[in-house]
Amino acid sequence: MMSQDDVHRLAYLEEAKELLADLEASLLELERTPGDTDLLHKIFRAMHTIKGSGAMFGFDDIATFTHDVETVFDKVRNGLLGVSRELLDLSFHACDHIRALLEPDNAGDAGLAAAGRTLLDGFRRYAGEDAATAAAVSPASQDESPGGVRIYRLRIRLQADNSA
């Protein structure tokens, strides 16, 4: 019998695959109409959902990878970066990478992890960030605001029987 966590993880996998299909369709459409702000918002929301749900259901590698891609699309939708062939190519490769991360047989694959780092370096270059500086930031310092306040991420799992 499957646990409630397993059921939720399977639901996430299905949702993520559907979101990736929608994301790729939106990217193809964005190729034809690069100034379409509705499409940019739709792409951002898909990335945001893949990231957030991934983190909630324990797919931390997907959440971490997608966070950086989402950040670039946030800059694009806010007019700080434009849509180009390079961004579209990186984005299609990112979809393929996320799809590969969804496969259980790929867990812990060093080659896949290296490919992800290479893709993220491409997104950082596109955003005008120094990849070496971005990689040097430790996870702990990323969770600390400039005022020294620590930010914690909480993951809450409800039990199947939640009666008190």
* Percent range for β-strand residues: under 5%
Largest sheet: none
Q: Percentage of helical residues?
A: 55-70%
Mean pLDDT across all amino acids: 82
Shape: globular
Separation of termini?
25 Å
Q: Roughly how many Å is the radius of gyration?
A: 17 Å
Task: Describe the oligomeric state of these chains in a short phrase.
Answer: single chain
Determine the number of helices (DSSP H or I, runs of at least 4 residues): 7
Helix-strand makeup class: mainly alpha
Task: List segments where confidence is low: pLDDT < 50 over at least 5 consecutive residues.
Answer: 131-150
**Number of β-strand runs:** 0
Question: H/E series, N to C?
Answer: HHHHHHH
